[in-house]
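== Polypeptide entry ==
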Amino acid sequence: VVQTGTSSRGEPINAVVTVTNGANVTIKNVTVDGDGRANTIDGGGSADYAGVFYRNASGGLEDVAITGVRDLYAGGTTVDGFDLVSGMQRGVGLWVDNDGGEAFSMDGGSIADFQKNAALLLGADLDITGVTITGGGAQTINAQNGIQVSNSTGSISGNTITGIGYAGTSDVYS
């Protein structure tokens, strides 16, 4: 997997689908599968892996399924039967990272089988509705996040988020 963009924090981003500096780019009715390849990314320790990465771009996703954005499974299962994900702090299903508040929407679709964040939404005017997010259950290595938002406006409503949890022995933050 090769670098396809750079985050606002200067991190190399390796994504399955990348949209940069675009206007009104809409992706519809596809499955974006990261195939568990986060451990093969370019860029060293600071690099991240994403299913879909919008950088300074407007548009959105309609009925898009994002899956497999993670390292190979660590081995073992959670107490609730999910595969354990790696402890590496990477693997974002949907990453929107804008400097100017560009509009971004996601209508329907799903995000599942991710390592760290289902959605990381930064600096955007958001309209996120009807999305199903399924985490990896009570993880013991890496705490997962459903939707993480910063410096954004808009609406996030009518979504279903399940399977987000942490059951490890350490005090952690996510």
In short: The two ends are 25 Å apart (CA to CA). The mean pLDDT is 94. Residues 23 and 170 are 44 Å apart (CA to CA). The chain is about 0% helix and 50% strand.
